[in-house]
């Protein structure tokens, strides 16, 4: 199967997190994907450890402040945009992009100083997509095809 062509920015959905058609930056220089989150904390609920965090989407007030609970999560050491190593929480969730749904891993980080709340890295793009850096939202053409 040939990879689909997407642009440098795409509208994606993260249905399990309640996010629908929000902008994500496609970053072929990053290995993993990242999602802006705040108030990230581990809690014990019913004797089990869970991860709670708020998803805050810049420019999307209807999605701002929603608290999400993840039962499956782990910590991962990553290099931030400044090349410094840090430990972040990582969750796995569904991503819908260009008419397809995949499982994807996202590290949670404070991206409030960044232009884009969601960054998609090579791991989710590999063998699925080619990126045309001159365009945006090419995935919409695939959403309407059956």
Automatic annotation (TrEMBL):
InterPro entries found in the cross-reference section: Asp_endopeptidase (IPR008503), Peptidase_aspartic_dom_sf (IPR021109)
| GO process terms (BP) | proteolysis
Keywords, comma-separated and alphabetical: Hydrolase, Protease
Q: Which residues form a coiled coil?
A: none
- Locate the Retropepsin-like aspartic endopeptidase domain: which residues? 5-137
A Gene Ontology molecular function term for this protein is: peptidase activity
Superkingdom is Bacteria
**What Pfam families is this protein classified in?**
Zn_protease (PF05618)
Name the record gives this protein: ATP-dependent zinc protease
């Amino acid at each position: 199967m040939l990879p689909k062509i997407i642009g440098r920015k795409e509208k994606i959905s993260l249905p399990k997190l309640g996010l629908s058609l929000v902008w994500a930056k496609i970053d072929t220089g990053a290995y993993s994907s990242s999602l802006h989150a705040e108030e990230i904390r581990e809690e014990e609920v019913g004797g089990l450890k869970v991860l709670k965090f708020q998803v805050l989407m810049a420019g999307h007030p209807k999605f701002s402040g929603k608290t999400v609970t993840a039962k499956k999560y782990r910590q991962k050491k990553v290099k931030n945009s400044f090349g410094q190593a840090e430990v972040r929480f990582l969750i796995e969730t569904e991503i819908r992009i260009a008419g397809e749904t995949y499982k994807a891993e996202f590290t949670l980080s404070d991206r409030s100083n960044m232009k884009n709340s969601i960054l998609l890295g090579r791991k989710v793009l590999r063998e699925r997509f080619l990126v045309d850096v001159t365009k945006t939202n090419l995935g919409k053409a695939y959403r309407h095809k059956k």
